[in-house]
Amino acid sequence: MEKALRELIKISKKVGSDKFLVLGAFGNTSVKSRDGKFMYIKASGTSLKDMCEFSGWRRLRVQGVRQIVADKGLADSAKEHRHIKVANKVLACCDDNINPTIKPSVETCFHSILGRCVIHLHPVCILKYACSRDGKQEIEKIFQNEKIKPHWVRYAQMGYDLAGKINRIADSGNSPLVLILQNHGIVVSAQQPHQALELLNKVISRCKTNPLSEIKKQHKDSAKEKVGEFALAIRKAIYQAAGTYTSVSHFTDKKLTFAGDKDLKKICTSLPVTPDEFIYLHGSVEFVGEPRVENITRRIKQRMNKGLGLPAAFLVDSVGLFIAENGEKAAFLRDVASNYLLVRQGASQLGGVKTLQKRHLSCLRGDKKAGAILQGQIAIVTGAGSGVGRSIASGLAKAGASVALFDIDKQAAQETSRLISDEFAQAQTLVVKCDVSNEKSVQNAYKKLLAQFGGLDILVNAAGVAPAYSLVTMPVDKWRKAVDINLSGYFLMAKSAATIMIQQGMPASIINISSKSGLQASKNNSAYNATKSAEIHMARGWAMELGQYGIRVNSVCPGNVFEGSGIWNRKYIEVCAKKYGIKPSQVIPYYVNKTILKREVKGRDVADSVVFLCSDKARTITGQILVPDGGQVMVR
Fold this sequence. Notes:
- This protein is an alpha/beta fold.
- It folds into 3 domains: 3-208, Class II aldolase/adducin N-terminal domain (L-fuculose-1-phosphate Aldolase, 3-Layer(aba) Sandwich); 221-364, Class II aldolase/adducin N-terminal domain (L-fuculose-1-phosphate Aldolase, 3-Layer(aba) Sandwich); 379-626, NAD(P)-binding Rossmann-like Domain (Rossmann fold), CATH 3.40.50.
- Helices cover 44% and strands 13% of the residues.
- The protein is built from 23 helices and 18 strands.
- A 7-stranded mixed beta sheet has the order 3-2-1-4-7-6-5.
- Helix 8 (160-171) links the parallel strand 5 and strand 6.
- The longest helix has 29 residues, at 476-504.
- It is elongated.
């Protein structure tokens, strides 16, 4: 490994592991080879702390990058096309065997101009000056008697524009070792890695010796009961404003006030203070006073009319931060939002907050990619620990939904969660132990759902049992258990789901997983026949009740699904073999042969049916039955 690369990795890990220096995962680093011909630089989208010998960087020809900065033809081209041209030219300067889809940092151009070792970061203690009206004067005062003289660089668009401004500073004969980038961050450069780190630490320590008043009021435990109400209101407002589904996560942070601070509300002026705040939060944190959907919706629309996207963070007096995401991404955005509140609070004491202008935003917008068919929706699947329930949960996660895995066997549900994570790295799941036949267990499970995801868009009732007895041999306790799980369980789950969905006021779906046996009775299966048929009728009645709220209710009646099934266990197969006078090994081929397509029905076939019914493609379908059974039963 070349020495310059080793030095880059060392610097990157050093600063990247310091949460005080690195806001979120932002920042970039570079080190040039001793002869100055090549430059190793952090790759775009890579976390500094995660850089290693094999990933997280690109190697470029320095002279080629400098020629891009000097290309006056680029300066004359339209800004909306320039960014793409520059990115392609920078990529062409790469001199390594790394996948070309991995791009060098957007700031590669200015790194080529500065010293051998360059560190560019966005710490809060620097941003409070960089994002304030009097920041330049304050920085000059702090360093007036110091050998270090940071050079203030007025805001320029990231990439080519910023590089051009820094190049003009260098050409003027003034080659500062420290740059404070207005509304952006800090850059230091030096010949050796340790010199760059020492220089960074000196500037940071001087800025830290000028502390600003801290935000002191704390979160109130008594406000916990309001969390669900606010989460539902925010979800509904986002949907009404933009037709977008999203999860809502709740956080408290002792660093921040949740105290209805009028000054703090005033400094959160929607427009972002840095490119990162725009890219990740779509502007400032949005303040919410009351869980009034119409007010939140109006504020969101006002932001969108300013050219901002949907707000990612909402601050509620005495309740906490609400992030319109879940999982690791929500935690990441919580950190970003918390830090930018501190930046704004600090800047307000330095002459006031200086935001980016509207004209700056157009160049920061990335291309929007179409999301998965159920992106942002929140689903529950009962019986998610095995069989059809597991397949449905996986299918919903693949379609972009966050999925709560309800099962009486928590270990089995955890295994489903692991399998989903292995296949879909970005999937968000919640494992909840739940006995669907027990009302209190169901109510507690829903509380956990709301605490984690903040709402509900899809319920799939898939938990079930199938006691295979003839009429005269069936024990009454087996009959009652089937009724409790297959009917009472579906009822209890749907009752709680509908309550949330009505309050939420957004289009939603309930799916009852019935069976072909609900359409055409099977021999020696009284309890299963009765409950599966009743599930269809319940769904039709619910569809009539809930349609006025935009809640669609349908049934899926699968054929025989053998893979991973808890119902099709060895004992059940033996009963079926005896019923038809065949060997146990012949049971599955026997059932497959009864289908018109002569094709075994898999769990994914059922999952695809559920995903379709929950999607907007089925927006006019309710009270209906979908039968993925290979043509075994004709619906009448």
